[in-house]
Design brief:
About 40% of the residues lie in helices and about 20% in strands. It has about 140 residues and is α+β, with helices and mostly antiparallel strands. The chain has one domain: Roll (CBS-domain), CATH 3.10.580. It is globular and about 45 Å long. This is CBS domain-containing protein.
Length: about 140
């Protein structure tokens, strides 16, 4: 099975200057737990629901009107290709201990996102069990 067979297609992304209140509304509206961050047509980071809470709401100097994606995002993007085998992508996610992975095409354009939920719906029990053990381990 290929990543393109299970991924969510057509992911939105935001600029680093996007207020986190807008990001939270995007997450709520699309029922997702992360939003990629891009600048100059390149992905530069990811804002997860956990980032919003731990690096935003829980920070000492939190200000909901001034805090932006740049302030809370996790920098450095790991991704996979849409034509990768799902097992390869799952192994990559397991190694990195991440629950979501952007998907790019041959032109290096983001075309989707593969998540824990996507894998749970389509992967075999052995692959899913292995992945859950790796991703769920404490960081």
């Amino acid at each position: 099975m290929k990543v393109k067979d299970v991924m969510h297609k057509g992911v939105d992304w935001v600029s680093p200057d996007t207020p986190i209140t807008e990001i939270a509304k995007l997450m709520q509206g699309h029922d997702v737990g992360c939003i990629p961050v891009g600048q100059d047509d390149r992905l530069i980071g990811m804002v997860t629901d956990r980032d919003l809470v731990c690096k935003g709401l829980a920070s000492k100097d939190f200000n909901s009107t001034r805090t932006t994606a740049r302030d809370v995002m996790t920098e450095g993007i790991h991704c996979c290709r849409e034509d990768d085998d799902l097992a390869k992508a799952v192994h990559h996610m397991e190694t990195l201990k991440i629950r979501r992975l952007p998907v790019i095409n041959k032109s290096k354009r983001m075309v989707g996102m593969v998540s824990l939920g996507d894998i749970g719906h389509f992967a075999g029990a052995d692959l899913m069990s292995q992945y859950m053990k790796g991703v769920s381990a404490h960081h």
